[in-house]
Design brief:
Length: 422
């Protein structure tokens, strides 16, 4: 079917074509607005400019393979192929996009791209939330992903000039309804760590302990090899894709880091390494620097999903908690934040921005009480007449005879002179 491209030239000022010098040139595809621009000049000049405008747009449509009957499913596949061909996205990202596109196609697949309006997009997302994709109602935290992908596809269609404006430009993303992550009480946290040490002949327990004591992501923990044990530090510069099992580099340079080796982590690795070597020897496998720190029953690299499943199955019965693996990372970073500077926290966590602390660092009532206690002690000293050091210095100066200086004042003066000389 051949596209119908039409042009209109309308006055924006004046009472007649002869007097008008400002025009709006509008292009329509199949009767729908596609593009417009302003033009200054006479009516004849505006008509000529309009013809050039129309010809240029027709060539753009030809080169882009424009088809007025192109469905959302067809264009979404083109969008996916562009992302595959770009080489800019990880395999796991492409697989995630394919799943989301498949879901969107269930509610929009047969609709023409040019016929997807704002109300239609909103209705499609509502159907997905109600269960049109998986057969059951989904949470907003999942629906947000579909919204993001639909917006990316329709924004791309706008840049391809297949539509005048993306209908998603005014469709707000759903508010998340995911349960907020929490930090464990410190005693409970340390109790879990102690229990994990008792189970340190199991790679799963070792992996969970590494996460709990170093704030690792699950994909980072399973990517560790013994060569990453630097003695005084733990090198983290790769992760493992959950679905493919392939190693990949971090998305940002901040993901590559060396975490200082705590005494507790050193003890754990020294316990586990000979035990793992004995287990591998029974399988006829030699432990080398390239051996994964966390291995499965066959001697291969332990999968992140296996680590997750082991913890979910045993957390209540063996550890008396319902916290997730990721909440152990949250807990470690929360207590680390109470004792270190912000930039050390950022580096150890592997964040690109310190603003991530707002997500990961949680309220610590004990730390809050300690901070208030420090303030109360200071206030009490003031009430009891024990002044702050600067007040004490001022009193010492005031007690000296005229023309004399106290030892404290002389000391401060000497310090100031030394600083000026530097």
């Amino acid at each position: 079917m051949e596209q119908k491209l039409t042009l209109t030239v309308s006055r924006m000022e004046g009472t007649s074509n002869a007097k008008c010098r400002l025009w709006r040139l509008r292009l329509f595809v199949d009767g729908k607005p596609a593009k417009s621009k302003r033009f200054h000049g006479t009516y004849g000049q505006a008509k000529a400019a309009g013809d050039d405008f129309k010809a240029a747009y027709a060539e753009t449509m030809r080169l882009s393979g424009y088809d007025p009957d192109m469905t959302f499913a067809e264009y979404a596949e083109r969008w996916l192929q562009r992302r595959r061909d770009s080489g800019s996205f990880e395999n796991q990202t492409i697989m995630r996009d394919e799943r989301r596109v498949a879901g969107l196609c269930k509610v929009l697949g047969g609709v023409k791209v040019c016929e997807i309006t704002r109300p239609r997009a909103i209705d499609a997302l509502a159907k997905i939330k109600a269960g049109a994709v998986g057969g059951r109602k989904i949470m907003n935290s999942t629906l947000i992903n579909y919204h993001t992908t639909l917006k990316q596809i329709m924004d791309e269609a706008e840049r391809d000039e297949l539509i005048a404006k993306s209908p998603m430009s005014s469709v707000k993303a759903p508010k998340t309804d995911a349960e907020p992550k929490n930090a464990l009480l410190f005693d409970d946290y340390m109790g879990i760590v102690d229990r994990l040490f008792v189970m340190a002949d199991d790679a799963h327990a070792v992996g969970i302990a590494l996460i709990a004591m170093n704030g690792l992501r699950r994909s980072e923990a399973v990517a560790l090899d013994w060569e990453d044990d630097l003695g005084n530090g733990l090198r983290v510069d790769e992760s493992v894709e959950n679905r493919t099992g392939l190693k990949k580099k971090p998305k940002s340079p901040s993901g590559r880091r060396t975490i200082p080796m705590s005494a507790k982590t050193r003890e754990l690795l020294d316990l586990w390494r000979p035990r793992q070597a004995a287990q591998l020897a029974l399988l006829g496998i030699e432990q080398t620097p390239d051996t994964p720190v966390l291995t499965n029953a066959k001697g291969g690299r332990l999968a992140g999903e296996g680590l997750y499943s082991w913890w979910k199955r045993r957390r209540a019965t063996d550890f008396g908690t319902e916290c997730t693996v990721h909440e152990l990372r949250h807990t470690f970073l929360t207590y680390l934040a109470k004792n270190g500077d912000a930039f050390a926290l950022k580096r150890i966590a592997g964040w690109a921005k310190i603003a991530m602390a707002d997500v990961y660092v949680h309220a610590d009532d004990q730390a809050d009480r300690e901070a208030m206690a420090v303030f109360e002690q200071r206030a009490e000293r003031y009430t009891n007449g024990t002044k702050e050091p600067q007040h004490m210095a001022a009193q010492d100066d005031a007690k000296q005879p005229c023309g004399g200086e106290s030892p404290q004042a002389q000391q401060r003066k000497g310090t100031c002179l030394n600083m000026e000389q530097r």
